[in-house]
Specification:
The complex is a heterodimer of chains A (634) and B (216).
Chain A: H1 2-8, H2 12-26, H3 31-34, E1 41-45, E2 48-51, H4 52-70, H5 82-105, H6 111-119, E3 125-126, E4 129-130, H7 132-141, H8 146-158, H9 161-168, H10 174-184, E5 187-194, H11 207-216, E6 222-223, E7 226-235, H12 247-256, E8 262-263, E9 266-275, H13 282-298, H14 304-311, H15 315-318, E10 323-328, H16 334-342, E11 352-353, E12 357-367, E13 370-371, H17 374-407, H18 413-419, E14 424-425, E15 429-430, H19 441-447, H20 450-454, E16 462-465, E17 468-478, E18 481-482, H21 485-517, H22 522-528, E19 534-539, H23 548-554, E20 566-571, E21 577-586, H24 595-624, E22 627-629
Antiparallel strand pairs in A: 1-2, 1-22, 3-4, 5-19, 5-21, 6-18, 7-14, 7-15, 7-17, 8-13, 9-10, 9-12, 11-12, 16-17, 20-21
Chain B: H1 8-66, H2 70-83, H3 88-103, H4 107-120, H5 124-140, H6 144-153, H7 160-173, H8 177-190, H9 198-206
Classes of the chains: A alpha+beta (634), B mainly alpha (216).
Main location (chain A): membrane
Transmembrane segments (chain A): 12-30
Subcellular location (chain A): Cell inner membrane
Chain lengths: 634, 216
């Protein structure tokens, strides 16, 4: 065969054709080696790529969850910020690392864990128990098969395998717990003196001093940046709705919506149920019927309640003597309904078969259905009609307002003339908001926005409340400026005096501290300063009767040597000082900690250290896995 | 190649001769290849089912721990140790037993458990974590110097927050407050801003304050 081929291979045309074929085949597919490969991943963890699609899906899901959770306070712009995106991506990378670690370590999610976790989802339960039918129905509703859903559950459980295993094997000894308790509930014996504030060294303040202080602390005496706006307001409640609906129109409305004004017939009923199991044999059915007939024969309006209590299988109603209350048509099942609504008042029925079994009914009372006449509901109809008209009117005016102010962005005049609205003035308000419409954060935000403040345009339509909106235009802009000296002279003088007092107090406290450390008696020093010593033995970190700065300083002081004390001067919140001595440090009062508290503490320490261990393990994974992040594709 | 020299018959003869000479090796080669592929698959399946079995036992163990049945938990751990000694789950289960032993004040047994777990783990990062836990138990049983040496032997910056805090604890025991302070400071620096034990760690550090630089 090859010989035959060779025999025929003569002449240059054949060779050319063959050559072309060889060339084409030889280089087929080679272009992919030369073309630059386009990468589309957002991050690459080892060999696994996190695609843009996956990243966007995750971002969208979080955004949706947040918006459901926070409702009106939800701010979608948070999800556009790079830091947020980075955080979401970091979490995805961590999850990917954990998955890869599971594979490396051979950790799998057990079937039992998947089963338990699915059975614990409330949507698949009826009466607190897992219900396979509900499970399949819920999945079918979401367009998923059990296999798909189970695999999702498995994946999400896999993410907590390592963190859980690391936390469960975290070691916290009794000694660790004891050490924490001894620190947390440490007791220190304190003595302290709150020194009275001394008089300032020099109580006269010269004008020159005031001026130089004012110049040096200009930033403390500023008026904030303010704007005032002119605005057009449209309020649904103030709009005049002239058209009063005519009688004919109202009557038509009444006819159309008659259902709303009719109360259906209701019947007051009691029943006795004789249960028939779902898959009852004919014998069981017969026995149930016989029992039901016997009860029906005995039953009279006088003894019905008692019979129901004795014999009814309906656990819900038997305690109430079988009472089911007032029922409308269509509330219960068809057979029951038919029997109930064909019964005469005060009569007891023969056994009626429904899905549940045999019912014996006693119709106690009837409330016939009644329609409210047109005259009675006329006022309501008028009100509904006019509020509908008001809403339409509001939508119309607000729409026109938005249009006109947008077409003439530099002024509110044209819109005001066209719509017959008056231009109002808000008065000056700072960025922190003001009164009137300036109390609304939307208005403040719009007033200080670049478009409105810097470009001088009209704002968009700002909805303050349903059926209430404004459009604003900046009228006056007052930049932040220093308050004039004349206005703040007294405040400046007070500040200077305060500083002098504080300096004198510090000097006094330091001097007394020096004498204390030299070994002088605290009580005598306190008396010389006109104060007395307070003491708190065994004070804890949260000791309520000791001033907070003293308390905090006390627990930052070094442990005193036995028989000696540690001293400090402590600045108080009001600018005064206190002298502090710590005489003794001891651990927690063991009698105040119950075994149960210890156990709870141990559990929370295990959780905390387990979490840090997981983070440490993730750090190690990050170090040995090649991770690329494409920030530009985020 | 000189095809001209042979006609169709001769070519056929040549092919047959070649097949006779090499046929056996070809068949054996294909057989080895097939056995290899199937064997590999079998091996993978076997591994996967073993992993699954270990996962199931571990899950039962967690349920037993949750229900407070420590005897049952110990029995399951023993079963994991004898049947799945190479599974990571077993190492975690044994580590968890060590935690129960520490709680029951059987520190020697806890130490043995942790050493078993450390010896059977292959992952370097998990080995390092187990080393730290061994050091923790050594410290609890009063061997602060051993614990310190062990912590310093853990390579690199692994688990820096945990390691440095533990180091500080050991140094406090050894009455070297200045070094302990440095260790706690390093631990604080390594922990994240929102780590749950920052407060406790800061208290440990504050408690070592010396005159002149409170709270340092």
């Amino acid at each position: 065969m090859l010989q035959a081929l060779r025999n025929k291979l003569h002449g240059w045309p054949t060779i050319v054709v063959l050559g072309i074929c060889v060339f084409a085949v030889a280089f087929f597919g080679i272009e992919s080696y030369f073309m630059s490969q386009t990468e589309t991943f957002v991050a690459k963890v080892g060999k696994h790529e996190i695609s843009q699609q996956q990243f966007q899906d995750r971002l969208n899901r979080l955004r949706r969850q947040d918006s459901e959770r926070m409702g009106a306070q939800f701010d979608a712009s948070v999800y556009e910020k790079p830091e947020m995106k980075q955080r979401v991506l970091d979490a995805m990378i961590d999850q990917q690392l954990l998955q890869q670690a599971n594979d490396d370590l051979g950790l799998k999610v057990s079937d039992q864990a998947v089963r338990d976790s699915i059975a614990a989802i409330p949507a698949f339960q009826t009466d607190g128990r897992f219900d396979p039918a509900a499970y399949r129905a819920a999945l079918a509703g979401a367009g998923q098969t059990p296999a798909m859903f189970e695999s999702d559950v498995r994946t999400s459980l896999a993410l907590s395998l390592l963190p859980d295993a690391l936390a469960a094997s975290t070691i916290v000894s009794d000694e660790d717990v004891q050490r924490f308790i001894d620190l947390q509930m440490q007791r220190r014996d304190l003595r302290y003196v709150v020194l009275p504030k001394p008089a300032p060294a020099d109580a006269t303040v010269t004008d020159a001093e005031i001026e130089s202080y004012y110049k040096a602390h200009q930033a403390d005496f500023m008026n904030p940046e303010q704007v005032s706006v002119k605005y057009l307001e449209v309020n649904g409640a103030d709009l005049k709705v002239d058209e009063q609906p005519g009688d004919a129109e109202l009557r038509k409305r009444y006819e159309d919506e008659k259902q709303r004004f009719v109360q259906p017939e209701q019947r007051l009923v009691s029943h006795i149920l004789v249960n028939v199991p779902k898959n009852a044999t004919p014998e069981q059915q017969k026995a149930a019927l016989a029992k039901a007939e016997k009860i029906a024969a005995q039953a009279t309006p006088e003894n019905f309640a008692k019979l129901a209590e004795q014999d009814s299988d309906d656990l819900g109603s038997r305690r109430q003597g079988g009472d089911l209350g007032w029922l409308e048509k269509g509330v219960t099942n068809a057979a029951f309904d038919e029997a109930l609504f064909s019964l005469q008042k005060g009569r007891i029925s023969k056994p009626v078969l429904s899905d549940e079994g045999y019912h014996i009914l006693w119709l106690r009372d009837v409330r016939s259905g009644q329609a409210k006449p047109f005259e009675e509901v006329r006022a309501q109809l008028v009100q509904e009609a006019s509020s509908g008209a008001r809403e339409r009117k509001y939508a119309e005016v607000a729409g026109k307002l938005a249009d006109k102010t947008y077409q003439n962005p530099a002024s509110l005049e044209p819109a005001a003339q066209e719509l017959g609205l008056t231009i109002k003035d808000s008065g000056l308000f700072p960025r922190s908001g003001g009164s009137g419409i300036a109390a609304d954060p939307k208005v403040v935000q719009a007033a200080f926005s670049d478009d409105v403040l810097a470009q001088g345009n009209n704002s968009g339509l700002l909805e303050l409340a349903p059926n209430h909106a404004v459009v604003i235009h900046v009228d006056r802009h007052v930049p932040a400026a220093a308050k004039p000296l004349a206005e703040v002279r007294d405040a400046v003088r007070q500040k200077i005096l305060d500083e002098r007092v504080a300096a004198a107090a510090k000097k006094q406290a330091d001097e007394l501290l020096r004498r204390l450390e030299k070994g002088e008696d605290m009580a005598a020093l306190a008396a010389s300063a006109g104060a007395s010593v307070q003491s708190a033995a065994g004070a804890v970190r949260m000791q309520p009767d000791v001033p907070q700065p003293v308390r905090e300083a006390a627990f930052l002081l070094p442990h005193p040597k036995p028989g000696a004390s540690a001293f400090q001067a402590v600045a108080l919140q009001d600018g005064g000082y206190a002298l502090l001595a710590v005489d003794k440090v001891q651990g927690a009062d063991a009698s105040k900690v119950s075994a149960q508290q210890r156990e709870m503490l141990r559990q929370s320490m295990i959780r905390a250290y387990g979490e840090v261990a997981t983070e440490g393990y993730l750090d190690a994974l990050k170090k040995r896995t090649e991770i690329k992040v494409a920030k530009d594709r985020m | 190649m000189a095809f001209d020299a042979y006609d169709d018959y001769e070519q056929g003869e040549l092919v047959q001769k070649w097949l006779r000479q090499n046929g056996l090796s070809i068949v054996v080669g294909i057989a080895i290849g097939l056995v290899g592929i199937f064997g590999w698959q079998q091996w993978r399946n076997h591994q996967a089912s073993r992993q699954m079995a270990a996962a199931n036992l571990y899950q039962q163990l967690q349920a037993a721990v949750l229900a407070g049945q420590n005897d049952q938990a110990d029995r399951l751990t023993g079963q994991l140790q004898s049947e799945f000694a190479d599974s990571s789950y077993t190492a975690f289960a044994v580590g968890e037993r060590a935690q129960r032993e520490v709680q029951a004040k059987q520190l020697d047994r806890a130490l043995a458990s942790l050493q078993w777990a450390e010896g059977h783990l292959k992952d370097a990062a998990l080995k390092a974590l187990m080393q730290l836990r061994i050091a923790q138990v050594e410290l609890a049983s009063g061997k602060a110097a051993d614990a310190l040496a062990r912590i310093d032997g853990v390579a690199g910056d692994a688990y820096k927050g945990l390691a440095q805090e533990l180091r500080g604890d050991a140094l406090v025991k050894l009455n070297r407050p200045d070094d302990a302070r440095k260790a706690y400071e390093a631990a604080l620096a390594a922990l994240g801003e929102d780590a749950p034990q920052r407060g406790a760690l800061q208290m440990k550090l504050d408690d070592l304050a010396v005159a002149g630089k409170q709270g340092a």
